[in-house]
Design goal:
single chain; binds zinc ion; 2 domains; globular; 6-stranded parallel sheet; alpha/beta; 10 helices; 7-stranded mixed sheet
């Protein structure tokens, strides 16, 4: 099979011919139809984060395909079913986090395309219990970005406790942001989209943003305060400054949800203002299998639109450059 492999951290990816993996106990073998490119894959390949993957490895955690074989004991899914391979490759299923609906916090979790091989390949093996069935009404091409960008932002809106009529600021309109703003609308929010590029703000308008703010040409904190301030701010831009501005735009009682993971890992928070204004800072990491089912169901019901462009796996290094240059409107998806 063809696979894109990170040979050593920081090196360009290599397209290699590898044997199709055998599904082990409790695993399924998935023939990939679509595999999304998430910014995390670039951080993984570069070894940007404190906990690094071990090279060589195959990145990718927005994999969607058809089950071709079952390993010994795999009994949740059937051959021929279409499933998604997400960041949460597996978890222990028995710790306090797993038992309380917070499997994404499990300390024994494996992560697809990071601690185990992922979806940048024609075939991948995955844990039968942790792949999520894709409804017939959702194409594999759309399902791929929903598998990380979708579920991550859907969960962020959920944990923000956004209520109907409240104002939600979405900072960064890209692969994640274009979906985040649609979920904020579904939850009944009034949405202010913030980005540095007018083209992305135009996209935000098309997808239902009520207001847009260009943070390159205006001070976003002042602009958002002039619009009444934010009850919720979801920070999807990989810059500590963007986090601080998102915090600064909050009204009293406001909630900042941190989602992006800047390589520069620190922001400054005023304690006095946090206390007196009753502000909250919430970290949110991907979403559970149940969250992903809900994301697929919303899409099947026609409530969301995925903006993505198709690419071939052999173009992977050019695609990384494209994403890093900011030229990609939302998401790139490798098609097989
Ligand atoms: Zn991701
Ligand atoms: Zn666990």
């Amino acid at each position: 099979m063809q696979a894109a492999v990170v040979p050593t951290l920081g090196a360009k990816l290599e397209i290699q011919q590898l044997p199709v993996p055998e599904p082990g106990p409790g695993q399924v073998l998935v023939r990939m139809e679509a595999s999304g490119l998430c910014h995390t894959d670039i951080h993984a390949a570069h070894g940007d984060w404190p906990v690094k993957p071990t090279a060589p490895f195959i990145p990718g955690h927005e994999g969607v395909g058809v089950i071709e074989a079952l390993g010994p004991g795999a009994s949740v899914h059937r051959v021929g079913q279409r499933v998604a391979i997400a960041w949460l490759g597996s978890a222990c299923g028995t710790c306090s986090y797993c038992l309380s609906g917070w499997e994404t916090l499990c300390e024994s979790q494996q992560n697809s395309g990071y601690s185990v091989n992922g979806a940048y390949a024609e075939y991948a093996v995955a844990d039968d219990r942790y792949v999520v069935t894709v409804p017939d009404a959702v194409s594999s091409f759309d399902a791929a970005p929903l598998t990380c960008a979708g579920v991550t932002t859907y969960k962020a809106v959920k944990v923000s406790n956004l209520r109907p009529g409240e104002t939600a600021v979405i900072v960064g309109i890209g692969g994640l942001g274009h979906l985040a703003l649609q979920y904020a609308k579904i939850f009944g929010g009034r949405v202010i989209a913030v980005d540095l590029e007018d083209a992305k703000l135009d996209l935000a308008r098309q997808l239902g943003a009520d207001e847009v703010v260009n943070a390159r040409t205006t001070d976003p904190v002042e602009a958002i305060r002039a619009l009444g301030g934010a009850d919720v701010a979801i920070s999807l831009a990989v810059s500590p400054r963007a986090f601080e501005q998102a915090y600064g735009s909050l009204r009293r009682g406001g909630r900042l949800v941190c989602v992006a993971l800047p390589a520069d890992d620190a922001m400054t928070v005023p304690i006095f203002d946090t206390v007196l204004s009753g502000k909250s800072i919430i970290g949110s990491i991907v979403g559970t299998r149940k969250d992903l089912q809900e994301v697929f169901d919303l899409h099947a019901a026609g409530r969301t639109e995925v903006i993505a462009q198709p690419r071939k796996l052999i173009e992977v290094n050019d695609c990384f450059e494209e994403v890093l240059s900011g030229r990609v409107p939302a998401r790139l998806v490798f098609q097989f």
